[in-house]
């Protein structure tokens, strides 16, 4: 149905927030420390909070709005934070990135095989997404 739009939305969000985090880290921390664990934490938590906040306020993140993927009903803050909590796995030292990739594969795998095209993160948070016509 619209799986590629969901992948494109996630990719757009990751690139957008990586650019913001990189610029902020270079400004606040300085170029020498731009590859520190603090920058990783800054990226992960800004991704989690900004993406969740946009979903609550606008019905979708920047990437979702650009690809016309919308969340069916208004989200509470708790639902949005829960729906995006998979990104927090990335902060686990050493195995975090691998674990995050595995979880993304499971989430999108569920989208592919579910008749309603709902991922596990949608089911856990009680949400549903659709493709907007406009």
List the helices and strands and how they pair.
Elements: H1 3-28, H2 37-58, H3 62-66, E1 69-71, H4 77-83, H5 96-113, H6 120-125, E2 129-131
Antiparallel strand pairs: 1-2
Describe the structure.
By secondary structure, the chain is mainly α. The protein has helices at residues 3-28, 37-58, 62-66, 77-83, 96-113, 120-125; strands spanning 69-71, 129-131. The chain has one domain (3-131). The chain has six helices and two strands. The chain starts with a helix and ends with a strand. InterPro entries: RDD. It is found in: Membrane.
Could you provide a short overview of the structure?
The chain is mainly alpha-helical. It is built from six helices and two strands; from the N terminus they run H-H-H-E-H-H-H-E.
Helix proportion of residues, in percent?
Answer: 55-70%
DSSP E strands, number: 2
Query: What sequence of helices (H) and strands (E) makes up the elements?
Result: HHHEHHHE
Strand content: under 5%
Number of domains: 1
In round numbers, the mean pLDDT is: 86
Strand order of the largest sheet: 1-2
Poorly predicted segments: none
How far apart the termini lie comes to 17 Å
What would the principal axes of the Cα set say about the shape?
globular
Radius of gyration: 15 Å
Count up the helices: 6
Reported for the largest beta sheet, the result is: 2 strands, antiparallel
> Helix- and strand-based class?
mainly alpha
